[in-house]
Amino acid sequence: MRIARFSIDGNVAFGAVEGDQPDQLVLDIIKGIPFADFELSGTKVPLSKVRLLPPVLPNKVVAFGRNYAEHARELGNEVPDAPFAFFKPSTSVIGSGDQIQYPSFSQELHHEAELAVVIGRMCREVPRDRVADVILGFTCANDITARDVQRREKQWARAKGFDTSCPLGPWVETDIDLARAADLTIQLTVNGQQRQLGRTSEMIHSIEDLVVNVTEAMTLLPGDVILTGTPAGVGPLNVGDEVAVTIEGIGTLTNKVVKRG
Ligand code: MG
After folding, report:
1. pLDDT tens-digit map of 175-192
2. Would the pTM of this model clear 0.70, i.e. be above it?
3. CA-CA distance, 64 to 180, in Å (whole number)?
4. Which of 23, 87, 107, 243 is most exposed, with minimal Cβ within 10 Å?
5. Is residue 56 part of a domain?
6. How far is the CA of 66 from the centre of ligand 1 (A)?
7. Domain that holds residue 196
């Protein structure tokens, strides 16, 4: 099931996305929230009539760096032995169709297409064989990075945590299991031109590894998100660009870059 979060007439709700034709998708409004047992209401609205919101409101986004060897090398970095994580704050999250605001303190904004894991239940110290139980589903992410600031500052809080630096969406796909998630095509275009193309099978540390690694340190809450790293091909974004992340079996996350007003 594809679960979207949206607003219509000032109300916010979750809905199950139905249909195959991109311009004819319909939302069946969910009674309740997708983190517990829920029912479909049967009340349907065309997706074109609503505003998509980020599919979840995470308490935290935990992102992993250099989890694809070719990407680590393209920026002149060593491939790390162990996974290493950083945070993107909840205020960095935007949905598909929202604008990425180019921050005033950077001259080098980069895109990073990533598979995002959406956590479905509160969990801590998750053993490998229980990882599937704590995942609600998967969505697309763009780990927008102020590369010049990342080089300049030891901690990445500003470089990767500024407002609008974490587009997520368009929805959460819940029908992808761990085996399939480990071998999906991940692609990014800027103004229709392909910049990144990889497969999640190229990850150094698996989704299971990453969930184990995060949860041995901290409790994850329903709606929290793990970003799994980006394949090679990262590059600059400019004001006016339209950037799109497409992951096989999930969908396309599209955002336009604007100057921060
Ligand atoms: Mg990244």
Report:
1. 999 999 999 999 999 999
2. yes
3. 20
4. 23
5. no
6. 7
7. 61-259
